[in-house]
Amino acid sequence: MESTTCFHCGNECDTKTITIEDKFFCCNGCKTVYEIFSENDLTCYYDFQNNPGAIPEEIQGKYDFLDNELIVDFELYPPSQGSSFTLRNIYFDFDKSDLRNKSVDELNKLAQIMKEHPSMEIELGGHTDTRGDEAYNMWLSKSRAKVARDYLIKKGIDKSRIETKGYGETSPEVSDAEISKLKGRSAKTAAHQKNRRTVVKVIKE
User: For the CA atoms of 20, 23, 28, 31, what is the dihedral angle to 10 degrees?
Assistant: First the structure.
C-alpha cells in the first residue's frame, strides 16, 4: 500500500488521515494550521518550503494538544468547575478587537452549551501576542474579552453569568524565543495568531 505524507509537516499519515481540498494531513493540528494559513491568504508559504510544519526537535510534542477534538472543535461536555478551554477558532487581527466572521461559530457553540447548562458561569480571558506596548496589550485583551461577552449576551446569555478578564501578553502559548526560531514570515504570523486567543474558565457548573 502506497504511503501518504502530510501536506503540512511531511510525516507519514496513518489510517486516521484527514483530507481537505485534496490534501492529506496526519492530524488535526496540521489541518488547523493549514486552515489558518488559508483564511489569511498565507498558503503561498507552501510554495517556498516543502512541509513547513516539520517540528524542530526542541519543541517536539509541545503542541500535541491540537490532536484533541474537544479543544479544536470546542465541544465542552460536561462542563467541570475550575476547568478551562481555549476557543481555538476565535480570531482577531493584530491590534484589533473586532471578531472575524468565522469566530461567531465557536461563540455560538459556547452559547448553546451555556443554554444547556443554565447554572454554568464562566470567565472569558482575553490574550494578545507580545507585539506592541505591554499596557496597550492589556487594554486590548480586556476589549477582546468584552467583545466575546457582548456577543454571548446578544445570544441570550445573562450578563451575570459571564466575567471578563484581560491577561495581555503575560501568557503566550508560543514564546518569542520559539517564534524567533521559526523559518519564514508566514510561520511566525501563524504563531502570533495562536497567542491571540480567548480562554473560557468554568467558574460554576
Answer: -90
β-strands 162-168, 121-127: how paired?
A: parallel
pLDDT in tens, the chain (205 residues): 455 788 877 777 776 678 887 888 888 777 878 887 777 666 666 665 555 454 444 444 544 444 444 444 444 445 677 888 887 656 555 554 456 555 677 788 889 889 988 999 999 998 888 888 889 889 888 888 888 899 999 999 999 999 999 999 998 888 989 999 988 888 888 888 788 888 899 999 8
Query: What is the residue extent of each domain of the chain?
Result: 18-65, 75-204
d(CA 181, CA 11): 20
Residues 6+ apart with CB under 8 A from 149: 124, 159, 162, 164
Q: What angle do CA 176, 178, 182 make, to 5 degrees?
A: 110
* Full-model pTM: 0.57
Please give the CATH number for the structural domain made up of 75-204: 3.30.1330.60
